[in-house]
Design brief:
The complex is a heterodimer. Chain A is mostly helical. In chain A, 82% of the residues lie in helices and 0% in strands. Chain A has one domain. In chain B, strands 1-2 form a two-stranded antiparallel ribbon. The chains are: A mainly alpha, B alpha+beta. Chain A binds chain B through residues 76, 79-80, 83, 86-87, 90, 93-94, 97-98, 101-102, 207, 211, 214, 217-218, 221-222, 224-227, and chain B through 10, 13-14, 17-18, 21, 28, 32, 39, 45, 48-49, 52-53, 56-57, 59-60, 63-64, 66-71.
Chain lengths: 232, 84
């Protein structure tokens, strides 16, 4: 895997993982809350940009920290840890695939988290609140995005020499659908139609995320068994 | 006169991995495409999900085992067959 193919791989994985129903739902609620409050275009820009920037920064920081932490391990330890991550990734992907068949069964977000989200999207809709909402969203999305992010970081960490800048691309791709939704909403797209689209397709989104996580785990295993070499 | 076909463990691992990945990917795509039509039926849904789990676990196990062998042993030579 050359540097270009690694970059392409990160982009493709990012596209499939960016379709995260929970992030889409929270951002749509934030935009709807902003419209409901009667904010001006400038204020809506401020709220959305605060949210998007903090989310992007958190994804990149977390990913880069994981890459650096993995590279701090010795060669053999890194391989063994990567083996464990790949096993967890394959099982985690199956949980996401389960969501395609039985969405939302057996788990739900906590009432406290739901109240916090409601408070920051509808009641308090300002840039500072959006910034805090971004942090809460990253935390709320951790169950669905945590393992794929860890697996992708592992692939980047296994490349010689490793390149943390790839996380910038990955982070940008993860927030890309939200940026598109924001641009389209500023051009007159109804937030209700975004919510309906998300609601109708959330099972398929989770299937894409699950299969992508399984694929990333398989690529880690291919690197570890010597079938695939990675350079960046 | 006879010739022995000697392959490195890397060759075998590569072949096994490629077969596992290609086979599992084709089976998964077929299952998901065909299965999407029967998603409303609960029994079929359970069966489809079990098949998906089986395929993913089988392919992952093959890849996991080959990766473990590669990490633990490095490169070893294996006689894969012989023409006499």
């Amino acid at each position: 895997m050359s540097d270009t193919s690694l970059l392409s791989f990160v982009v493709v994985v990012g596209i499939f993982l960016s379709l995260n129903p929970s992030t889409l739902a929270i951002f749509s609620a934030l935009l709807a809350g902003s419209l409901g409050k009667g904010h001006s275009k400038f204020e809506r820009h401020g709220v959305a940009m605060s949210f998007l920037l903090i989310l992007f920064a958190l994804y990149v920081t977390l990913g880069a920290a994981l890459i650096i932490a993995l590279n701090a391990l010795s060669g053999d330890a890194l391989k063994n840890v990567a083996l464990g991550i790949a096993a967890i990734g394959a099982l985690w992907g199956l949980i996401d695939v389960k969501e395609y068949y039985w969405y939302g069964k057996h788990h739900d977000i906590s009432i406290r988290l739901a109240k916090t989200l409601h408070h920051r999207t509808v009641k308090k809709n300002d840039p500072l609140s959006a910034l805090l909402l971004g942090i809460t969203t990253a935390y709320a999305a951790l169950p669905s995005l945590g393992v794929p992010l860890l697996a992708t970081s592992t692939i980047i960490a296994l490349a010689r020499p490793y390149n943390t800048n790839l996380m910038l691309v990955f982070g940008a791709i993860l927030v890309l659908p939200l940026i598109l939704i924001f641009i389209l909403s500023m051009r007159g797209l109804k937030i209700s139609s975004v919510m309906k689209w998300k609601e109708d397709s959330k099972g398929t989104f989770r299937l894409c995320m699950g299969l992508t996580t399984i694929l990333v785990s398989w690529v880690i295993l291919l690197i570890l068994n010597g079938s695939l070499g990675v350079t960046s | 006169m006879g010739t022995a076909l000697i392959a490195t463990s890397t060759d075998i691992i590569l072949e096994l991995s490629v077969r596992a990945i290609i086979g599992a990917s084709i089976a998964l795509v077929l299952l998901l495409v065909i299965g999407s039509a029967f998603r409303r039926n609960d029994k079929v849904k359970q069966l489809l999900f079990l098949l998906v789990v089986g395929i993913v676990l089988c392919a992952s196990s093959v890849l996991f085992a080959t990766a473990l062998v590669h990490i633990r042993q490095g490169d070893t030579f294996v006689i894969t067959g012989a023409h006499v």
